[in-house]
User: Which sequence fits this backbone?
């Protein structure tokens, strides 16, 4: 994912792992003050790349707490390779889906449109 910087406007890249829940694609971050999250919140869009393909997407922050919990509950199942990062930053202690759902208030979830 590349999003424009808040000050420079230049695209800044960061690795992400999109997940699909109920037919919708989402991006999640356990670090709500990270630069890529703050840039995405400010810009509302980014370039999502997979291999050599890249496309511009709209990023809508999910504010509904129930939906955020549902998305985060699916994260350890859909993106198991992302679980160690959540553990390393202290967002969760294990890959338990209920623990991810409980961490939802401190995480950011974007709907990818």
Assistant:
């Amino acid at each position: 994912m590349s999003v424009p910087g808040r000050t420079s406007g230049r695209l800044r890249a960061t690795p992400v792992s999109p997940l699909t829940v109920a037919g919708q694609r989402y991006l999640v971050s356990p670090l709500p003050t990270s630069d890529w999250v703050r840039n995405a919140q400010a810009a509302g869009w980014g370039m999502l790349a997979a291999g050599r393909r890249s496309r511009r997407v709209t990023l809508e922050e999910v504010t509904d707490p129930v939906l955020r919990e549902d998305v985060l509950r699916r994260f350890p199942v859909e993106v198991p390779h992302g679980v160690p990062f959540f553990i390393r930053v202290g967002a969760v202690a294990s890959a338990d889906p209920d623990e991810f759902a409980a961490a939802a208030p401190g995480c950011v979830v974007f709907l990818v449109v």
Observations:
- The longest helix spans residues 65-78.
- The mean pLDDT is 96.
- The helical segments are 35-43, 65-78, 83-88, 97-102.
- The two ends are 13 Å apart (CA to CA).
